[in-house]
């Protein structure tokens, strides 16, 4: 073909599969380059430590599910939206006091970026010690939606105005304080992702474990049948599934009553 050919150029290649493109408030060069998977459960994490992810979520069953496209993870670096030459994200508490508080305007910009990637039922959740306790029911609720956007707290917390302005849900892993919300975010995501279809492979695994019936899980045993003079309870080796189920229920009730009287009392009320 000669150099002066007038043949029209070939059409650009079309995207295939479930990849999608979404508008963003940030320049493309600031993004990770990871394509979105349309229709897949999506976790977005607003954090000052994006390098902390996927962390343990990239291992074992959750890591395999992430690689297989059963869910997807997107980190949003809060520092990107910081102000001034040092990209400050925090300031001193109004009224005085120790520490620093994450600024409402900076967080609002990050939330707007997250909103560009959100779809369907994706609650906006702030991880904080003062939030409502996170439990199995909350994990199940997240798994049944389209995903979640998590805000990892740092310093003395987040300006209340942005919490009120966006109607952010606050959750806590328990009555203790950590240096930030990144570990809590990974725990929340692990609890939700493992409930997604296809992640565990055996749906019965999630039906018989702790909290699924409002009880702590019964004791578990495996080979060898005798270890250090301690035997597996004979009923578990009997092959009588009705008796095994009865034994496990009784053991779960006993463990719950002894270790979590609050759960036991709630169960009795219901």
Automatic annotation (TrEMBL):
<protein>
    <recommendedName>
        <fullName>tRNA (guanine-N(1)-)-methyltransferase</fullName>
        <ecNumber>2.1.1.228</ecNumber>
    </recommendedName>
</protein>
<keyword id="KW-0949">S-adenosyl-L-methionine</keyword>
<dbReference type="InterPro" id="IPR029028">
    <property type="entry name" value="Alpha/beta_knot_MTases"/>
</dbReference>
<keyword id="KW-0489">Methyltransferase</keyword>
<feature type="binding site">
    <location>
        <begin position="173"/>
        <end position="178"/>
    </location>
    <ligand>
        <name>S-adenosyl-L-methionine</name>
    </ligand>
</feature>
<keyword id="KW-0819">tRNA processing</keyword>
<dbReference type="InterPro" id="IPR023148">
    <property type="entry name" value="tRNA_m1G_MeTrfase_C_sf"/>
</dbReference>
<dbReference type="InterPro" id="IPR002649">
    <property type="entry name" value="tRNA_m1G_MeTrfase_TrmD"/>
</dbReference>
<comment type="function">
    <text>Specifically methylates guanosine-37 in various tRNAs.</text>
</comment>
<keyword id="KW-0808">Transferase</keyword>
<keyword id="KW-0963">Cytoplasm</keyword>
<dbReference type="GO" id="GO:0002939">
    <property type="term" value="P:tRNA N1-guanine methylation"/>
</dbReference>
<dbReference type="Pfam" id="PF01746">
    <property type="entry name" value="tRNA_m1G_MT"/>
</dbReference>
<dbReference type="InterPro" id="IPR016009">
    <property type="entry name" value="tRNA_MeTrfase_TRMD/TRM10"/>
</dbReference>
<comment type="subunit">
    <text>Homodimer.</text>
</comment>
<feature type="region of interest" description="Disordered">
    <location>
        <begin position="1"/>
        <end position="24"/>
    </location>
</feature>
<dbReference type="InterPro" id="IPR029026">
    <property type="entry name" value="tRNA_m1G_MTases_N"/>
</dbReference>
<feature type="domain" description="tRNA methyltransferase TRMD/TRM10-type">
    <location>
        <begin position="44"/>
        <end position="265"/>
    </location>
</feature>
<dbReference type="GO" id="GO:0052906">
    <property type="term" value="F:tRNA (guanine(37)-N1)-methyltransferase activity"/>
</dbReference>
<feature type="binding site">
    <location>
        <position position="153"/>
    </location>
    <ligand>
        <name>S-adenosyl-L-methionine</name>
    </ligand>
</feature>
<dbReference type="GO" id="GO:0005829">
    <property type="term" value="C:cytosol"/>
</dbReference>
<comment type="similarity">
    <text>Belongs to the RNA methyltransferase TrmD family.</text>
</comment>
